[in-house]
Amino acid sequence: xSAEEKEKELIKKTEDEIKEREQQVAIRGNRIEAVELFQKSxxxxxxxxxxxxxxxxKTLENADNFIKKYKESVSxxxxxxxxxxxxxxxxSETKEPVKxxxxx
Length: 104
Fold this sequence. Notes:
Blueprint: H1 3-41, H2 56-82, H3 90-93
């Protein structure tokens, strides 16, 4: 390899390293913003890794969609669990007052 080729290779390697570091910094920043959104929305922060992207706008869009779907799912599950017949009020069905006997 000539000196010129070595220099070009070194420059390319350096540019690639810089690009990789910039992506890592962008991901960290996007993670911080997504965590804040999750905390404000009451969604578990442990799930934030599913929405992170290098692009900030894409991360925020993913986070918004995830939060909406998460809340819909939770609401649906709660509604399903609450289905059924409510317990009867026994007080309204008895006509005579119930006497309580205590012994000492």
